[in-house]
Amino acid sequence: MPLVDRVFRSRRLSPFVYGALALLVFLALGALLPNYLVYLAITAIVATIALIGLGIVTGTAGMIALCQLTFAAVGAWIVSLFTVLQVPGGYLLWLVAGGVVAGLAGVVIGLPALRLRGVNLAVVTLGFAAAADATLLKTQFPGAPQGTKVPRPEGFTDDRGFFVFCAIVLVVIAVAVHFLQKSRFGSGWRSVAFSERGTASAGTSVRLSKLSAFAVSAAIAGIAGGLIAGQVGTAYPAGFNTIQSLALYVLAIVSGSYLLEMALFGGILWVLIPELLKRLGIPQDWGFVVFGALGIQALTTNSNLGQDLRNAVTRRRRRRLQAAGAAAESGLVPLGEEDFATALTTAPAHGRAPRALLTVSGLSVTFGQVQALQNVDLTVEEGTIVGLIGPNGAGKSTFVDAIAGFLPQHEGTVRLGDDALDGLPPHRRARLGLRRTFQQDRVPPSLTVGDFVTFISRGRATVAETAEVLEFLGCPPAATRISNVDVGTRRLVEVAANLAAKPRLLVLDEPAAGLSHEEHVAFGQRLRLIPARYGTSILIIEHDLDLVRSVCGSITVLNFGEVLASGDQETVMNDPEVLKAYMGETEML
Ligand code: ADP
Ligand code: MG
Q1: C-beta of 178 in contact with ligand 1 (< 6 A)
Q2: What is the separation, in whole angstroms, between the first and last Cα of the chain?
């Protein structure tokens, strides 16, 4: 991708400007804060760092990690150990080392997340925190018995200096996380939170997305832990216990700490609430009750303080964007006569010797007692559009799932060109050029249209190509938030994004559901242009037989999991068996 494109796309300058401004504010605070607040301010900054990390796993990737401070303890432990061993390199290097080791621990704890979700994952991570309580944290940190103190970095040794040092670390981490969130990794995290199948279909490994979220999150917590060691000199285990991790998790949820400024807000609450309680003469442990109550509020209303605050601040801007989005959504209009005349002449060249692109033979799938597919053969030739039709429950979606790699236990073989796909996981098949869309909405609402195209196309489409394919399918512009796009149009965005990936074969599972009749016609016209325009062949599952007639050269009909008829459109549509199967089903007769 050209450099200008990239800079334009990620608006690379502004985060640095924000970072510099934040740093100036922190420098001013470092000079102006009254003495008794400086130490608390360090704690707030360190908590902010831990919350930024937690925000990646919980807010962005949608998983649960109740052991964030255990990762912090790992970082603190490493820094303490390196102090005792006098490892060369100094505090900054030890801090990084603590982050790396904590990140590795994050990968290990993330492994169960590959199989577990929700409450089960909560139990595993909580168990890890409790196990650490009972082992790692029962023994003292290295150097503690001898009273060895972790040395703060030179030039930042007093509290004010160390506050500034922590602020610098925070800003560096915040900017780095901003770019990570914007990158394909970040889109992968958001996508995995919304739909694992959607993620795999984009050619992104679900395992890698989940593990990387855990690793980055834990590494950041490890750095926070190393800072705590520097702050207190001799780290003590009680600061990293399970109950603290739970409280931090609640704070991440309450504040919405996947948003960077909200992590700071959460970090401030982390010190403010206990401090207020102390001043009111209430034991500080009651802070956990306050956090618990806030957490219940956030979880039951499914909202968070941070997002609410941010919404209030940005309401006007969002209204404007929504208006722009709404105006852009009705973009799919039928092509004029002339345009479409051109389309007809560029339709699949039947004169050429046909080359098989997708070859499925003997495909059988059973779900328990249900034989969803039985010995199904299907071929899609290069440059053509093939229709797969059949009554509800005939096995069409099952067929797509099987060839896309989601049903590894199927019988039969699937080839794409010269590649045998059997046994490959979904993301590998996607990378080999087999893309599919879903019957259900699997477009993550937290992305913009442009981010989604970048994610699905694995960064292959330039800004110009993205704009072109979006316009081609009448989609809203790249800057529109998907949450502002109606469900029917989201399906079009999904098709556009997959086209931008330039696949060899695109399988569409009822893509036109949710579109008006006029949009149906317009969509059919665009489909016919696709093989010549993008070099992509299409297998389309569709209920609307008008649409099927207008785009598909050949058709396969499934009924009760078996091929009822297969061949060119004319023959299949006039087959008496097909007519019988469809009687009372659709408007075919
Ligand atoms: P279509 O897409 O043609 O409407 P499907 O492929 O969704 O049909 O379903 C085919 C058959 O397989 C149906 O009888 C359905 O109930 C069954 N089926 C689909 N998915 C599953 C599943 N995960 N477990 C059990 N049965 C399933
Ligand atoms: Mg279906």
Answers
A1: no
A2: 51
| CA angle, 471 then 472 then 477, to 5° | 20
The answer to whether the CB of 559 is under 6 A from ligand 1 is no
CB-ligand 1 contact for 392 (6 Å cutoff): yes
State pLDDT tens for residues 538-572.
Answer: 999 998 888 999 999 999 999 999 999 999 998 99
Task: Select from 95, 96, 51, 92 the least CA-distant residue to 69.
Answer: 51
How far away, in angstroms, is 508 Cα from ligand 2 center?
Answer: 11
Token pair, residue 240, equals: 């990293």
Q: Which atom of ligand 1 is nearest to the CA of 398?
A: 6
Overall average pLDDT of the 86-104 stretch: 96
Mean pLDDT of the 181-186 span: 88
Rounded to 5 degrees, what angle do the CA atoms 587, 588, 589 make? 100
401 Cα: distance to centroid of ligand 1 (angstroms):
10
| 76 CA to centre of ligand 1 in angstroms | 52
- Percentage of residues of the chain with pLDDT beyond 90: 56
Rg of the chain's alpha carbons, rounded to an integer?
28
- The answer to whether the beta carbons of residues 161 and 96 sit under 8 Å apart is no
Q: Between β-strands 537-541 and 554-559, what pairing exists: parallel, antiparallel or unpaired?
A: unpaired
Give the residue among 558, 557, 553, 556 at the shortest CA–CA distance from 531. 553
- In degrees and rounded to multiples of 5, residue 473 shows phi and psi of -100, 15
Which one of 3.20.70.20, 3.40.190.10, 1.20.120.790, 3.40.50.300 gives the CATH number of domain 339-433+504-588?
A: 3.40.50.300
Cβ–Cβ under 8 Å, residues 377 and 362: yes
Instruction: For ligand 1, say whether the CB of 365 is within 6 Å of any of its atoms.
Output: no
Q: Is 409 in the pocket of ligand 1 (CB under 6 A)?
A: no
Q: Which ligand is nearest to the CA of 402?
A: 1
Q: Where in the chain is the domain with CATH 1.10.3470?
A: 3-313
Provide DSSP, 147-174.
TPPPPPPTT--SHHHHHHHHHHHHHHHH
Question: 58: which residues sit within 8 A by CB, 6+ positions away?
Answer: 64, 65, 249, 252, 253, 257, 258
pLDDT value at residue 345: 45
Asked if residue 391 has its Cβ within 6 Å of ligand 1, the reply is: no
Residue 589 has what pLDDT?
39
Q: Does domain 3-313 have CATH number 2.60.40?
A: no
Judged by average pLDDT, the poorest of 223-227, 377-381, 438-442 is: 438-442
Ligand nearest, relative to CA of residue 376: 1
Ligand 1 atom having least distance to the Cα of 392? 4
Q: Which ligand has its closest atom nearest to the C-alpha of 372? A: 1
526 CB less than 6 Å from ligand 1? no
How much is the average pLDDT of 85-102?
Answer: 95
439 Cα to the center of ligand 2, angstroms: 6
Question: Which ligand does the CA of 396 lie closest to?
Answer: 1
Q: How many CB atoms lie within 10 A of CB 285?
A: 10
Under the phi-then-psi rule, with left for phi > 0, alpha for psi from -120 to 50, and beta for the rest, what region is 101?
alpha
CA atoms within 13 A on the CB side of 386: 21
| Listed residue (1, 477, 179) closest to 187, CA to CA | 179
Name the closest-CA residue to atom 7, ligand 1.
397
- Residue 395 near ligand 1, beta carbon < 6 Å: yes
